[in-house]
Amino acid sequence: MVKSSFIYLSLVVLTSFVLMGSTCTSNAKKTSTGHGYAAFHPGEIWLDTDSVHINAHGGGILFHEGTYYWFGEHKVAGRGGNRAMVGVSCYSSSDLMNWTSCGIALPVATDTLSEITKGCVIERPKVIYNEKTGMFVMWFHLELKDQGYAAARTGLAISDKVSGPYTYVKSFRPNAGIWPMEMTNPSRDTGKYNHLKWWTPEWRKAVEEGLFVQYDFEKGQMSRDMTLFVDDDGKAYHIHSAEENLTLHISELTPDYQDFTGKWTRIFPGGHNEAPALFKRGGKYYLIASGCTGWDPNAARSFVSNSIWGPWEALGNPCIGPDSALTFQSQSTYVLPVQGKEDAYIFMADRWRPRNPIDGRYIWLPISFEDEKPVIEFNEKWDLSVFE
Ligand code: GAL
């Protein structure tokens, strides 16, 4: 008798813990029953289910056990509001329109010696789930406090629960001491480049030959704007702007997704591509990126390849119609495959508000394909029926 009531009590306690842990998931399910948004309204204030403007900029989405989780930069009001004063936020949704706050997935540290101490810069966080380890793995662009954008590191945090809390593990510059796969006969004579003036044809040629790869060979390659991609075979890749944002690098992650294997390649050396978003459709890899103009919008670019390792082919600006030359005043952050729908991809971008970062807007638009090329058009109000 005593034993069975003990078992009963333990079950009650255990169940309440499990329920506490999943509050954010169950709330999300409630929102899908109808109230709230029935459409996407790109560029407008987007309220969460507590009626607060969603605070998840430069974000990415993980679909896990029937629920979408949106991770992004938590920004604050006013100038300087781009610094990480709080951490990485997480929201959940089952319909992609109504989002419930799951709170802060990765809080900044109060310890001033921590690499992610309050006031550092944490940008473009992305989370992927590792089937083998059962761990959620978050990578993000990290800039150390008070160092501007000089550190150019990638940071890692992990959790066994999707909405966190995530534990900060480490940050570094990728691929230190390792040449990209295509540089089979690398030169270490960086001195020969010292006289070159930026933007001259000679300098551009040197960039293509790997001038910056060579400069950063020992300390590791720069890693700023980034994204993650998990392929059908379970392999994951870290894609980031390197070489002073001149060249994108694609690196393979280890089977647990928590490190780099050392296999990496450069795409479009000197192409000045930022804000990468990678997805796969019909066996082909697609990449959408922006040019490099800081918080100001510019024209997006798209690329396609039969292999993640290239060769990549440039397809030009995927955006069409009014304001397409400025990506509808926004910059790519992620391409989201919609679950349960054929050929349904959402282009996710940020309309930055650098003077008041918390007011930044989200531009989510459906991607269509013409002659196997991605096409994005502005639509001030749309819903998932466009994919039918
Ligand atoms: C953008 C980049 C943003 C942020 C910003 C800082 O080009 O995409 O993520 O780093 O520069 O100026």
Structure overview:
It is a single chain. With 388 residues, this protein is mainly beta. It folds into two domains: 6-176 and 222-387, 5 Propeller (Tachylectin-2, Chain A), CATH 2.115.10.20; 177-218, no CATH class. It has four helices and 21 strands. The protein has helices spanning 2-21, 23-31, 201-209, 211-215; strands at 57-64, 67-73, 87-93, 100-107, 121-130, 135-143, 153-159, 167-172, 226-230, 236-242, 247-253, 260-267, 274-281, 284-290, 301-305, 313-316, 319-320, 331-337, 345-351, 361-370, 373-377. It has a five-stranded mixed β-sheet, with no helix packed on it. A four-stranded antiparallel β-sheet has the order 1-2-3-4, covered by helices on one side. A four-stranded antiparallel β-sheet has the order 5-6-7-8, with no helix packed on it. The longest helix is centred in the N-terminal third of the chain and has 20 residues, at 2-21. Bound molecules: beta-D-galactopyranose (GAL).
Walk me through the topology.
Layout: H1 2-21, H2 23-31, E1 57-64, E2 67-73, E3 87-93, E4 100-107, E5 121-130, E6 135-143, E7 153-159, E8 167-172, H3 201-209, H4 211-215, E9 226-230, E10 236-242, E11 247-253, E12 260-267, E13 274-281, E14 284-290, E15 301-305, E16 313-316, E17 319-320, E18 331-337, E19 345-351, E20 361-370, E21 373-377
Parallel strand pairs: 17-21
Antiparallel strand pairs: 1-2, 2-3, 3-4, 5-6, 6-7, 7-8, 9-10, 10-11, 11-12, 13-14, 14-15, 15-16, 18-19, 19-20, 20-21
The structure holds beta-D-galactopyranose.
